[in-house]
């Protein structure tokens, strides 16, 4: 008995099926993003704890291999985290406080010089100053409430930091228990694959954190040394700014490098500013052509456009914190997608990224 021909050709049906899949994925992604935004206060300590765990995981594993009990090793690792982060934070904040006024004054001097060069001085600057005074007078009455709001935000950040530290301790101590739980709740036969995917994602974040920290330290030392040789004021504070900004790829280096050049221009003149520009460009070339391939060769390599898109999305969702967390999260996602794509292309039934057990042929 003859069958009726299909209403749509095969190509149209295939396109429609892919459109439905894309819409479903977009809908699920939208719901997940909405949940992340709604639960931002609860997710932030968890994500920070995962970053801390990724950064200090090798130290904890080494302590365990040396025979230290897991809870004690996790406690020692968290203590090392507090000491390192606290010491680095103290150095950075002290340097910025000591040099902050000088840096701001230098940037203001550059702004006045540029305004004089382009004939913007006079009425325009006077109008701007008067408007600024009006704004200050208008909002001066809310200074007390603003101070209380700032103290509230500081308290929230402190609470999130303490919670992230406690979660880091539990993540380090109970990693094996989490692995067994994953196998328990996973559908039958998918435990090894899910474990391999989770391991790939975590290793991507781990490599990113360690590589970025080392690169940030090298960049800060090199730029600080160059600015000290050029006798640029506030060199240590500018180096601290470079170190902090390195955790926001591309954008952080651009901002910190620009500030360094402006300070050199204001206090040391045009020639020294050109030398400072050369130092910043040389360090960025060293990072892009030597440090990145050498240090982060085992991490997920993303196109700069994808990095900027991730930073923009993170800034829109969670501000500065979102900018800091966007790239490691994207690195984990790209690592998982890349591993699954390779596994699918190979047509293998084994878990992505898994290695053969001892005794098995490799």
Could you characterize the architecture of this molecule?
The protein is 83% helix and 0% strand. The protein is built from 11 helices and no strands. The relative contact order is 0.09. Mean pLDDT is 75; it is low at 138-148 and 348-362.
- Percent of residues in helices comes to over 70%
Number of helical regions: 11
User: For the residues shown, what is the average pLDDT?
Assistant: 75
Pattern of helices and strands: HHHHHHHHHHH
Main sheet properties: none
| Outline | globular
Radius of gyration: 26 Å
Structural class: mainly alpha
Strand % is under 5%
Number of strand elements: 0
Between the first and last Cα atoms, what is the distance in angstroms?
A: 55 Å
- Provide the low-confidence segments as ranges: 138-148, 348-362
Task: Label this structure with key terms.
single chain; 362 residues; mainly alpha; 83% helix
Question: What's the gist of this structure?
Answer:
This protein is mainly alpha-helical. 83% of the residues lie in helices and 0% in strands. The termini are far apart.
SSE layout and pairings?
Layout: H1 10-38, H2 40-65, H3 70-117, H4 123-139, H5 143-173, H6 175-185, H7 191-229, H8 235-245, H9 251-268, H10 270-295, H11 304-346
Helix pairs in contact: 2-3, 2-5, 2-7, 2-11, 3-5, 3-8, 3-9, 6-7, 7-8, 7-10, 7-11, 8-9, 9-10
């Amino acid at each position: 008995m003859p069958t009726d021909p299909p209403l749509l050709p095969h190509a149209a049906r295939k396109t429609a099926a892919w459109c439905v899949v894309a819409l479903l994925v977009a809908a699920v992604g939208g719901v997940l993003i909405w949940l992340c935004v709604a639960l931002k206060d609860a997710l932030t300590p968890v994500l920070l704890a995962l970053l801390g765990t990724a950064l200090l995981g090798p130290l904890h594993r080494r302590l365990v291999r040396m025979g230290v009990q897991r809870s004690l090793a996790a406690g020692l690792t968290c203590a090392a985290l507090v000491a390192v982060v606290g010491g680095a934070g103290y150095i950075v904040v002290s340097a910025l406080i000591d040099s902050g006024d000088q840096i701001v004054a230098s940037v203001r001097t550059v702004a006045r010089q540029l305004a004089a060069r382009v004939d913007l001085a006079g009425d325009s600057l006077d109008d701007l100053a008067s408007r600024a005074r009006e704004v200050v007078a208008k909002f001066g009455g809310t200074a007390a409430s603003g101070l209380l709001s700032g103290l509230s935000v500081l308290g929230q950040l402190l609470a999130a930091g303490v919670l992230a530290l406690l979660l880091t301790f539990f993540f380090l101590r109970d990693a094996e228990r989490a692995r067994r739980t994953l196998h328990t709740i996973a559908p039958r036969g998918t435990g090894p694959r899910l474990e391999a995917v989770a391991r790939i994602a975590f290793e991507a974040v781990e490599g990113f954190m360690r590589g970025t920290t080392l690169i940030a330290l090298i960049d800060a030392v090199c730029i600080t040394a160059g600015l000290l040789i050029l006798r640029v004021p506030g060199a240590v504070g500018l180096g601290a700014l470079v170190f902090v900004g390195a955790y926001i790829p591309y954008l952080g280096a651009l901002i910190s490098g620009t500030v360094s050049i402006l300070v050199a221009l204001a206090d040391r003149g045009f020639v020294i500013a050109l030398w400072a520009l050369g130092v910043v460009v040389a360090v960025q070339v060293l990072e892009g052509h030597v440090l990145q391939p050498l240090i982060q060769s085992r991490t997920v390599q993303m196109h700069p456009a994808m990095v900027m898109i991730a930073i923009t999305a993170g800034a829109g969702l969670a501000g500065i914190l979102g900018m800091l967390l966007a790239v490691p999260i994207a690195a984990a996602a790209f690592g998982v997608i890349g591993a699954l794509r390779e596994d699918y292309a190979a047509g293998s039934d084994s878990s992505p990224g898994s290695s053969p057990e001892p005794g098995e042929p490799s």
